[in-house]
Amino acid sequence: MAAPPPLASNEAILAAEQAPLHKWAAESEWNAPMEPFTIIGNVHYVGTKTISALLITTPKGHFLIDGVVPQSGPQIAANVAKLGYKMTDVKYLLNSHAHMDHAGGLAGLKMRSGAKMVASAADKPFLEAGDIGHGPSGGVKFPPVRVDRIIADGGTLRLGKTILKAHLTPGHSPGCTSWSMTAAGKTVFYHCSASVAGQSLKPEAYPGIVANFRATFAKTKAMKADVFLANHDIFFDLHAKRARQIAGETQAFVNPAELQEFNRIMEDAFEQRLKAEEAKAP
User: Fold this and answer.
1) Residue 117: left (phi > 0), alpha (psi -120 to 50), or beta?
2) For residue 210, is it within any domain?
3) Distance CA 240, CA 226 (A)
4) What is the crossing angle of helices 73-82 and 10-18, to 10°?
């Protein structure tokens, strides 16, 4: 059986890649260039200055997580090549969540790689519509991308000896998905996100957002990670760690306490935000 056609034509994808950045995307340097590098083992950073994209390499093919904004596809592909790898060897294209600044470049990366797109059931409709429809990026459209495979909580993907495990951590989006794996003997955890990010909690930006956030905070408290990664530079001190790594600190990204510290900070911020919105509600 032939594969279903793409949801966005090559012409539409290329036009989106060449379109001017939204003012707030430019101001936040979402598509500002950054040299790719190896974080640890077979985990590599191929994203932009402020938004993450990860390449996980194996002899059997590669995983690529997140696509940043629509204009970032060419830069991510170039970063993959700079590290000596081929986009056509990417077998699985993954997403943390369906906001434009993390899903916008996925269609272009799928076009270049032919990889299978994997995402949660709850975020699938947004990815295939090219618009999450609510929150700060609601209504900001991006090239839609067809989801080839749904991943459930605890689901795994394997290439050779490398196994990625999906952890559904909803709140920031209904289908927010974090990913974990082992690299160089260390547990690596890529957090989908736990920030409210301008979404309304009262009234709820989407039904169940408050319960989702609280369930995610509780779930994350039981997790451990040696290497904590996140999808915005500010959440995991990307540039300071990279500077230390360049200076010779080979374990710059290893900090077993960081995941729980991040979870505590995000939970406190969420509860304060919810309290403030409830106080203003009629």
Assistant:
1) beta
2) yes
3) 17
4) 90
Query: Is residue 135 a part of any domain in this protein?
Result: yes
Compute the distance between CA of residue 277 and CA of residue 79 in angstroms, rounded to an integer.
Answer: 42
Residue 232 DSSP label: B
Check: CB of residue 92 under 8 Å from CB of residue 44. no
What domain range is 142 assigned to? 10-280
Of 42-46, 178-182, 194-198, 223-227, minimum mean pLDDT range? 194-198
The answer to whether 179 and 165 have CB atoms below 8 angstroms apart is yes
CATH number, domain containing residue 161 = 3.60.15.10
Q: State the virtual CA torsion across 140, 143, 149, 151 in degrees, nearest 10.
A: -30
C-alpha span between 213 and 219 (Å, rounded): 10
Specify the pTM. 0.96
Locate 272 and state its tokens.
Answer: 């304060």
Q: How far apart (Å, rounded) are the C-alpha atoms in residues 65 and 46?
A: 10
Number of domains in the chain: 1
Domain-located, residue 152:
yes
Give domain status of residue 4, yes or no: no
**Residues 191, 41, 107, 237: is their CA dihedral positive or negative?**
positive
